[in-house]
Design a protein that fits this description.
- By secondary structure, the protein is of the alpha/beta class.
- It contains eight helices and seven strands.
- It has a single domain, classed as Rossmann fold.
- The model has no long low-confidence stretch (mean pLDDT about 95).
- Strands 3-2-1-4-5-6-7 form a seven-stranded parallel sheet, sandwiched between helices.
- The longest helix has 29 residues.
- The structure holds NADPH dihydro-nicotinamide-adenine-dinucleotide phosphate (NDP).
- The site of NADPH dihydro-nicotinamide-adenine-dinucleotide phosphate has 31 residues, from helix 1 and helix 4.
């Protein structure tokens, strides 16, 4: 059977690194993001038979038609990576309801919608593997990131429950929880100051996370696990 993977948030950062690694390992990929040009640029760079699609993960209709397009062009999805995510960091008292909703809708509802669509097709195929990208702050909490932390902590609870729900169908669901990683999301952070809290002394590279994602995607006896990839940051939190 073809290994077809949908990488939501595959146009930049961690998702792009996952897509590159998976392309090297022979997966057929759908690179999905809101900005179609960004997704196309990555799919084009990968060479081979990959697909680029535009989709807002927070919109159920978008997600459904994305899975239909992938099935039509590449075949049914049997691997899913949810790397689409946003942050609106601020103290809670300064966070607008709009900023709360957009973080929850993209980071949490978005992964629920893509998992729901993926699980339907994986049940028909009698198997599949999902990795959701959480965050170490979803496990530990971080001031200035209460809503973002909630969205990522919620993702862990969701993934564990879903792992139990679908295990009998031979579908596995896991989480990778990164610390600070060099991407657009962290480009405005003061690395010099923050890295003193990281035992390994540096921000992660997207490829550091991608290796962990691939490990969980392909590990046949691991499900409901949250794998922290943070250079030891959580030891100091
Ligand atoms: P980037 O900002 O580099 O990339 C985010 C990706 O998500 C882009 O491809 C973006 O494309 C896509 N995206 C954002 N919103 C949506 C949406 N509504 N629908 C579809 N796609 C969307 O972020 P990172 O690579 O850093 O982050 C990847 C994941 O890792 C996120 O979930 C993030 O929360 C998490 N994470 C990141 C950490 C870090 O230090 N970088 C640390 C811990 C967790 P487009 O804008 O075109 O839609």
């Amino acid at each position: 059977m073809d290994r077809v993977c949908a990488v939501f948030g595959g146009s930049r950062g961690i998702g792009r690194a996952v897509a590159r690694l998976m392309a090297q390992r022979g997966y057929r990929l759908a690179i999905v993001a809101r900005n179609l040009q960004g997704a196309r640029a990555v799919a084009g760079d990968l060479g081979g038979d990959h697909l680029a699609l535009s989709c807002d993960v927070a919109k159920e209709q978008d997600v459904q038609s994305t899975f239909e397009e992938i099935e039509k062009n590449l075949g049914p999805v049997n691997f899913l990576v949810n790397a689409a995510g946003i942050n609106r960091d601020n103290l809670l008292v300064r966070t607008s309801t709009e900023d709360m909703l957009c973080q929850l809708q993209t980071n949490l509802l978005g992964s629920m919608l893509t998992c729901k669509a993926a699980v339907k097709t994986m049940i028909k195929q009698q198997g599949g593997s999902i990795v959701n990208i959480g965050s170490v702050v979803g496990l530990k909490g971080n001031p200035g990131q209460s809503v973002y932390s909630a969205s990522k902590g919620g993702l862990v609870g969701f993934s564990r429950a879903l792992a139990k729900e679908v295990a009998k169908k031979k579908i596995r669901v896991n989480v990778v929880a990164p610390g600070f990683v060099h991407t657009d999301m962290t480009k405005d952070l003061k690395e010099e100051h923050l890295k003193s809290n990281i035992p390994l002394g540096r921000f992660g590279d997207p490829l550091d996370v991608a290796h962990a994602v691939l490990f969980l995607l392909e590990s046949p006896y691991i499900t409901g696990h949250a794998l922290v990839v943070d250079g030891g940051l959580q030891l100091t939190m």
